[in-house]
Amino acid sequence: MNREYILIDDPADPRIAAYRDIRERDLVGREGKFVAEGKTVLNVLFSNARMAAESVFLRENRVEGMQELLGRVPADVPVYVASGAVMDQIAGFHMHRGVLAIGRRINAPGVAELLDTLPEEALVVAMAEIANHDNMGSIFRNAAAFGVDAVVMDQGSCDPLYRKAIRVSVGAALKVSFAREGSAEAIVDALTSRGFDVLAMSPHGTLDMADVKPGKRTALLLGAEGPGLPPPLMERLTTVRIAMRRDFDSLNVAAASAIALHRLWRG
User: CA separation (Å) from 225 to 159, 229, 244?
Assistant: First the structure.
C-alpha cells in the first residue's frame, strides 16, 4: 500500500491539536480518547477490535522502521510526520520515542455487562482506589501475563487509559477488557452474585496465598497502598496475604498482584 504522509512543519497546525501539550491534557482528560506511545503499544492498538485509532504521529526518522506496522493502519487514518524539534514543541517535552497515536474505545462496558460476558471459568482482578498510574499500568501488565479475563475497578481508581498507565502496561491496558464505575462495594456485590470467590489482599490476611486453591471463578481484590481495602469489605471477604519476613511491612501492590496472580493462574 502506498501510504501518504502528512508533513507537519508548524507546531500550531490545527490538525495535530490532539497531540498538543500531552502531559497537561492527560491531567484534565481527553473526552474518551487516549494517547498511545511507542511501537509496542501501537502494535497492540492496531491488533485490538475494541479500540480504534484516529491518527498516528511519527518523528520523521522513525518512519522507515515503522513500515510493517503502518501497513496495518487503515487508509482513512491520517499519519502525520514531523521533525524532532517540531514534535517536541507540539508535545511540550522531548519525545525520544517519536511514535504516537490517538485512540478511542469502541465499546466501554459497565461492570455488570463485562462480567456477564465472561466464561464459566474466569479469573478477574478488582481494584479499589488504585490511584497511582504506575501501579495501574503494572497491574494490567501482570493481568495480561497471567491470563486474567477482565479487570474491574471503582470510580476512585485512576483511568487505565492515561498515557503513562498505558505505557507502563506495555499496551496491556488496551488488551485486557476492563470496566471502571461505581464503588468497590458494588463491584464485590456484582462479583459474588455471579459466583466469584473474591479474595481480598492484605498484609494481614488470614490465608497464605501459597495455600489458596482457586475455584472456577475467582476474583483478586486489590486496595491502595497505605489505607488498603475498606474494613467493611475485609470483614465480609476471605482475606489473603503473601508470606514474607516479619520485620518488613508489605510489598508494592503491583508486585503483590504479580505473585498472587501467578499462584491463581497456576492453580
Answer: 17, 9, 17
